[in-house]
# Entry
Amino acid sequence: MKRLSLLALTLAVLLPAADASAQQTLYRQKKYFGPIPLNALSVNVGFIDGPDPEYLTDHLIDWAGQRGGSESWSDWATSFYARVQYQRQITPNHVITGSANFSYLSADAAGDYFTQTDPVVYLTTERTLKVYLLSFDAGFEYYLVKPEVRQMAPYVGGGFSAFIPLERLETTMRTESGAVFDNPSETASENSVEVGLHGEFGLVYFISNRYAAGFEGRYQKSQSKFTIHGGNFDIDYSGLTLSLVIQYFF
# Structure
């Protein structure tokens, strides 16, 4: 009797277990992913640091000093950066890319000077240098390991860029009484298209065959000219970008 009871208990445990193992569970369905598709869109959001307008700002400081005044400029601080990129896999490790990048750079200044007119007028100045920096990249990326679902994949890349800086120098001048002094030559803007280079490195985790996330570092190199007071002054847009990355494969 004890043996029959033991046998019945064993069958009661083994039969449901065998039946469950023969069926495809929901958990196993979630674990399975197909191959990673050849095309991807990615979005980067982060910060850029390094671009420098010192040749222009040094000139404006000297210009005020030559007129008996002074001018003090803030630095271009770490600024917002965003990127949208298309990727096409040509081998499991080799990818060609095209992307559009945007960053916003801004610096402020306060100063004073004396006009070179008769009568001489003492003026205070407030300046803001803004740049809306657009760039379009064509490049190549190489994954150091073959991308696989639920794995980390480091990569390096680089290529050429077309930079489009939209530069704005806004200046407000006031007399000692606080009245606005009209001097339109001190407000200037310039747009141009410049050639540049970029290199990048990153690490992404493939969550599934549709989604991946990680981080990227990117170094860009380019510069442009800004014209004021009869001279052209370099603005350097070389800098390092650090950003978070989200990718969608299709």
Helices lie at 2-22, 26-31, 54-65.
